[in-house]
Amino acid sequence: MASKKTIIKYNPVTVDGNVYNYPVLSPKLESFAMQLIPCKLNLAEAIRRSEYATKDSLAYKHGSQLWARQDLREWLSVHLERLKDQLPKDAQDAINEIRIVKELVAIAYTHIGQIVDWDESGQVTVKTKDELTDAELASIKKVKCEIFETVNDEGSVTSRRTKIELEQHAKLTAIDMLAKLKWDWYKRVGGSKSYDDDQGKKRGYIVVPQPEKRIN
To answer: How many CB atoms are closer than 10 A to CB 147?
Structure first.
């Protein structure tokens, strides 16, 4: 079964003779997007300043779910391109760190069943590039395709067989890197909530954003 692709509409905006194709966002989502740069990509704080009426304790979780939306990330990329010469260095560094985490999350949370399908008879079908999401494409390390043809004496092709080898990036490596980064990730874009462990000590927590989880 083919993956459902999100249809994104665009609104061209001309600034100083340059055209920027902004994805069309809902008013609430755009209010969140507009706060991301002033908040240096602190997702929880951006939620608090947006039009979303989210409980403070759920601000980071809601923000991380919104951050997984493709239209939001495209909007932010276009906006960053427009403002690239006006951003302070710490904002640029925070944006780069978020992008690194998102790539690692795509590798860690994408499984092979999202890319290929097979039935009881052993027939394997690989989805086309257009059927794959950005996260699924990011999880692929290598694709190799070989075509084998049988030709008769007259030079006509009588049969054709295709062999496809697909390799994903190492999931355990990505998970290990996320584990090492999680506390720094929590401090930069997480909330302030903590929980008590079995010994009554305060422990921080982190909610890693899922690539395909959506909130309207």
So the answer is: 9
